[in-house]
Specification:
The complex is a heterotetramer, with two copies of chain A (219 residues) and two copies of chain B (294 residues). In chain A, helix 6 links the parallel strand 7 and strand 8. By secondary structure, chain A is of the alpha/beta class. The two termini of chain A are 21 Å apart. Chain A contains six helices and ten strands; from the N terminus they run E-E-E-H-E-E-H-E-H-H-H-E-H-E-E-E. With 294 residues, chain B is of the alpha+beta class. Chain B folds into two domains: 181 residues, no CATH class; 98 residues, Alpha-Beta Plaits (2-Layer Sandwich). Helix content of chain B is 72%, strand content 8%. Chain B has ten helices and four strands. Chain B has a four-stranded antiparallel β-sheet. The longest helix of chain B has 43 residues. Classes of the chains: A alpha/beta (219), B alpha+beta (294). Chains in contact: A-B, A-D, B-C, C-D. At the C-D interface, helix 1 and helix 7 of C face helix 2 and helix 3 of D. Bound molecules: adenosine-5'-triphosphate (2 copies) and magnesium ion (MG) (2 copies). One adenosine-5'-triphosphate sits at the interface of chains A and D. One magnesium ion binds next to helix 1 of chain D.
Chain lengths: 219, 294, 294, 219
């Protein structure tokens, strides 16, 4: 589903160097490593917010290299992202923030309403449907972002530090959500430094260190 | 076609959310178009007034007092064969007197006491429009004066120079002022749409990351610009119509030429103004939205 | 006073970062001011032309052909005592003939053949400026016509009506167009500063939370508006000066009254335009920044 | 230094009800509780981003109730805040972001430069001085926010979930920074759900639950 072959990314410094790995369809895997190692960068490469300087990336059958400006939106519709910095719109309600992910598919308003309400129930935010993001706590905002990433039923779900703002109780709720989504067939890739998320799960964990993959283990 | 539906919905919502700034934009566009269309109307009418004036420009060729009928015919034939000359009018002594009588009006009675007609006969020549250049006309007049049987050649020298200057200044200022106002109108919409664009910059970035197509992002802004332009144009058009109606109703017969400049207005302009507004504003919002890159 | 230093620094930096939009804003403000100042100049000159015309307006009172010298004096005294009358001029038969001779110019020779002067003597009355209302003048003329020794009273009835209409229309359109352009100018700056304000909305929110005072936040925007206005006003002023110079150089002596309208321009206006630009733009940016609340 | 007396705050619901506590000058304390309990709201009350519906708050001698619009900035200059949502300016470099906190004091540019460079060294971001925030990793951004809150040497330092984006190694670096600042005399109040931050520190911990203070203990 996701394949990296000798991928490198440089900014001022080398951030990622000769990264190769592949995540299979239906898998749920983790990427971990210290702050600033390149976890977010790696995810950005997957949904084409940034392009690799070397190597090849394939996502859900799309060759990132060969994507035209015009086709990037269509790739992104297959990739749901829980952004580390949320990217919620402050002038839109929780409902509209989540609905946006469906509106850009030009879905029918009635279907949108049904789907959004369902997913807000899943993340336990039904009671905040008409609230604005800046009126939510950090943990509540985190869950809105997860809802938005889920609602369009993407082929691939990327989550960047999805429990950074959550206490352990809420972290568990969110992790259970990811497992459920994964069980329905979505490939899930989670970037986190929170080791308790993957300890004793038996899922694959990719450890990044100093621009390279250090090891891959079962957590 | 749900993209269009969402775009129109979004455009209308945004227009309404910022109704004051949008109204002010439309109003400014309207003012610009009002000034522009007034200016175009005046220029347009001025031009036809100038054309009329140019048509009335004649070289008066006074004939010798004692010229014979044959000599007069010879002169007439020469003028008629001249390619520069558009029209030749013979004014006999009697006609000249009759014209003077008209000019004098109520005081014409003083002519009753005359024993003989003191006025000479003359030809009035109209030159082709594009030959009405001061230097050319001067040369022509001198040539004619050399001919036999001619006592004097008269024409409005200063008048002709002014006609030329006015025409040239009008053309230059049409282009300058017209262009400047058009740029200003485009800019006003550009500015407003740019505000909206910046205000929603974060939203746009997020939309891109969520997989929105370019047209999904751009269409609402373009539609907003278009609507602002149409409303602005309509304001301008109505204002023009209002002002024009007032002027006509007041029956300005102060200076006939001024009246001609103000009063005659082509009907098409009332439709053209909103169309021009829509076009300019569309261009403005098009530039404001700019290129969208992923 | 380091606030001011930081504000000026910040304003200049922002102005430079967005030089195109700022130049376009200044340019639009300039165009607006150019149109406005041209319009004011024309109105101003037009007004003095109208005043001159009004001064030249006279009622011509023709006396009976066979009136005696004493009767003429009586009539003159009556006019002189009339509070409405500003000036009384007696034009004798001989003077009337001399004037006609001037009017006829080169064709005056026809008058040489006259045996007796057919023209009547007359008084020309000038009324007070504020009495030049069509209905009032009409009543006055009728009263005078009733007096003994008077054969006929003449004045430009239509002309007077037009003078009044023109004056009224000019006043109305001054207020309307002038106001509209001023609003448009304020709006243009408002719009641009609003863009900057929105673009830095996040920054402003953060500054507030960090403990910035209101003036620290507002000053840069107000300074930007001020500078844009001064630059715009200078553009407008230079354009006005340029156009005026060209018109004067071309020596437009086409229609003397038009010449008077275009050519005379008070020097102060070249300074007033930048000042007006600065003021309008300052108002625009002041509104754009709005009330800052913590 | 910070005193709450019967403070209540309502939004649509009751968020905080009859909260009373006080933090002494020179103390380092924690506030904890589940997501959405009102930790951020409590901090916002301290720096007057929002005002209490009931009760009295005193901060560094200022009575929050009686503050005029005009005086709020001067209170805030005494309170450094590490915002949960960062609030970094994307069009300014790391240096300028931090310097901003001093510029609003109308400090001299030379002094500003010295102070900013020093604090960036403290948070281990000297090498990112001229980078832009969106070019930083989540953890790096977190540390820029801490630097900005520290640089003006506030009387009170508030930190809202300051380790949410940090792995354990970086969390420790940051916590040591807070201890140092505290040692220099600044009163520090940290809101977090990360229990490992206060376990075995012996510092005071205020537990929030369901709109009220549940208990105060030594962690
Ligand atoms: N657009 C960019 N331009 C320049 N440098 C960048 C850019 N994006 C990231 N970097 C740098 O690349 C490195 C990796 O950043 P990245 O955000 O991928 O780290 P991360 O693993 O997600 O860290 P964290 O756990 O703190 O979020 C960092 O040092 C960051 O400063
Ligand atoms: N401005 C506001 N308007 C309405 N409701 C608000 C506002 N701010 C916060 N709330 C609500 O108040 C409650 C407490 O929010 P707060 O941000 O204080 O929680 P928190 O303890 O910081 O949570 P977290 O750990 O998730 O950051 C939440 O339910 C939130 O939705
Ligand atoms: Mg990251
Ligand atoms: Mg919080």
């Amino acid at each position: 589903m996701i394949q990296f072959i000798d991928v490198s990314k440089f900014y001022e410094d080398v951030v990622l160097k000769d990264i190769s790995f592949s995540i299979n369809k239906g898998e749920l895997a983790f990427i971990t490593g210290p702050s600033g190692v390149g976890k977010t960068t790696l995810l950005k490469l997957i949904y084409a917010e940034t392009i690799p300087d070397e190597g090849n990336i394939t996502v859900a059958g799309w060759e990132i290299r060969d994507l035209k400006q015009r086709t990037i939106p269509y790739l992104r519709r297959h990739v749901g992202v829980v952004f580390q910095d949320f990217r919620l719109l402050h002038n839109k309600t929780v409902f509209d923030n989540v609905a946006l992910a469906l509106r850009i598919h030009n879905m029918h308003p009635k279907e949108i309403k049904e789907d959004v309400n369902e997913v807000l129930k899943d993340v336990k935010l039904k009671h905040k449907t008409n609230a604005f993001p800046q009126h939510l706590s950090g943990g509540e905002q985190q869950r809105v972002v997860i809802a938005r990433a889920m609602v369009s039923r993407p082929t691939v779900l990327l989550a960047d530090e999805p429990t950074g703002n959550l206490d352990s109780a809420n972290s568990e709720i969110v992790m259970n959500l990811f497992k459920e989504i994964n069980a329905r067939g979505t490939t899930v890739l989670i970037a986190t430094h929170n080791e308790s998320l993957f300890h004793h799960t038996g899922r694959r964990v990719i450890y990044l260190k100093d621009t390279a993959i250090e090891r891959e283990v079962s957590g | 076609m749900r993209v269009l539906f969402y775009s129109i919905q979004s455009a209308l919502k945004n227009l309404w959310a910022e109704k004051w700034i949008n109204l002010l934009t439309a109003f400014s566009v309207g003012i610009g178009l009002l000034i522009l269309s007034t200016f175009i109307t005046v220029t347009f009418n001025m031009d036809s007034v100038l054309k009329r004036w140019a048509r009335s420009f004649g070289i008066v060729v006074y004939l010798d007092d004692d010229i014979s009928a044959e000599a007069t015919d010879t002169v007439r034939e020469l003028f008629k064969q001249d390619a520069d000359v558009l029209e030749v009018n013979y004014i006999s002594e009697d006609e000249a007197l009759r014209e003077l009588r008209l000019i004098l009006g109520s005081e014409a009675s003083i002519l009753d006491d005359l024993e003989r007609n003191p006025l000479p006969s003359s030809f009035e020549l109209k030159l082709k429009r594009d030959l009405l250049i001061p230097s050319y006309v001067k040369k022509k007049a001198e040539e004619i004066e050399e001919m036999s049987g001619i006592s004097q050649v008269q024409y409005g020298e200063k008048w002709l120079a002014s006609l030329n200057t006015v025409t040239r200044i009008m053309k230059a200022s049409s282009i300058f002022l017209g262009g400047a106002i058009l740029i200003a109108i485009i800019f006003i919409t550009y500015n407003t749409i740019k505000i909206f664009f910046y205000r929603r910059k974060e939203e746009i970035e997020t939309l891109k990351l969520l997989g929105a197509t370019k047209s999904f992002i751009r269409l609402p802004f373009l539609l907003e610009g278009l609507i602002i332009g149409i409303v602005g144009g309509t304001i301008g058009s109505l204002a023009l119509f209002g002002i024009h109606s007032v002027l006509v109703a007041k029956g300005l017969d102060f200076i006939p030429s001024v009246r001609a400049i103000i009063v005659s207005i082509p009907d098409e302009i009332f439709l053209s103004v909103p169309v021009a507004g829509a076009l300019m504003s569309f261009i403005g919002s098009f530039i404001a939205v700019g290129k969208i890159r992923y």
